[in-house]
Amino acid sequence: MKKATLQEIASSLGVSRTTVWKVFSGQEGVSGNLREKILAKARELDYKFPEELDRNTVPEKKDVNIAVAVCRPETSIFWMNIIHQIAKEFSFHDVNLVYTYLPSVIEEDYTLPSQLLGGSIHGIIVMNVYNERLIRLLSRADTPKVFLDTATAIDPSSLNGDLLLMESGVSTARITEHLIKQGRKTFGFIGDINYAKSNYERYEGFTKTLERFGLALSKECMLTGSIGAFTYKEEIDAFLDTLPAMPEAFVCVSDYVACILMQLLLKRGFRIPEDVAVSGFDGNMESPLAEELTTVQVFNKDIGNRLASQILYRIQHPDSQFETTYISSQVIFRASTGD
C-alpha cells in the first residue's frame, strides 16, 4: 500500500501542507481542535509518524530552528550586519539561527541542502539570492519563508512566502530630480536591472523622473545588462570607452558600482561633481570614496528586525495571505552631486 503523504492529509481536511507539517513537528499556531483532527486523519490514512511523535498525544513544544539561507555574504558587510541583527532578535525569542550558505550559480541537478529539507528547520529567511532556478527551488519548499528582495523576473506571487523590500524607486527619483533641478541635462545609469527587483525599481524611478521633466533617455549611456560578479571595474571601464560624450550625471544602483565609477572617472581626468555628478544606493561606507557619495541610506537594523519578526509570524500563521512589505530608506546628499 502506498504510504500517505502530508499533502493527502492536508487535502482531505482542506488545510495547507504547512499546517499539517506544524502539527507533526510540534510547532505552535494550530488550534487544539484542528491538531486533533489532523492526527486523527493521519491515523486513519495510516500515515507513518516520526518516531518521536506519539500517535495518541499532542506533541510537546520543541526548539524552533530558523535558517538564514544566503549567497555570497562575504561580498559586503551589508549582509553580515543584517544577519547579526536577525541573530540578536532571535535570541530574545529563544530561536536557533541555522546559517545556510547557498551557491550563487547552480547546476541542473542541484538540490537544496538537506538541513533545509529534513524537517528540523521551521522557517527560512532568504537573503542575497537572485538566481532564478535557486529561488524557484526555495519557493517549492513546504517550510514557511521570507525573502529579502528577489530576482526581477520572479513574480512575488510565485514565491510561496513573504517578500521584504527596501524602498528604492521614490528615493532614486528624488536624487534624479535634484540633479535635474541643478540644470543637468544628460544622464547615465549603471546597474544590472534584471538582477534584482530593487535594482529594477531604482531604474524605474530614474526613468520616470526623466520622462516627467521631458528629458530624453539616452540608451547609449545606460549600462543595465548583466555584469559579471568579479568584472565590474573592467566592464564599466569598457562601457565608458563606448560613450560618444560623457553624461553630466550618473545614477548607480549601488554604492559599490558608484565608487568604481568615481574611481574610473577621476582616472580619466573628470572632476566630480563639476564635470560629472554621481550617486549610489545602500549607504555603504566600505570605500573611502563613499564619504563624498550621495546615496540612499538603507537601515540594516530595521530590515533584520523585520525579517526576524515576519518569519516568526509566518510560522505561527502559515495560512495567512502572503505579504510584500517595503522598509523606508533615506536619501543622503553629499558632495558627489554638488551639495
TrEMBL record:
Residue span, HTH lacI-type domain: 3-75
Listed Gene3D superfamilies: 3.40.50.2300, lambda repressor-like DNA-binding domains (1.10.260.40)
Recorded superkingdom: Bacteria
Single GO molecular function: DNA-binding transcription factor activity
Keyword set, alphabetical order: DNA-binding, Repressor, Transcription, Transcription regulation
Pfam families recorded: LacI (PF00356), Peripla_BP_3 (PF13377)
InterPro entries documented for this protein: HTH_LacI, LacI/GalR-like_sensor, Lambda_DNA-bd_dom_sf, Peripla_BP_I
The protein, known as: LacI family transcriptional regulator
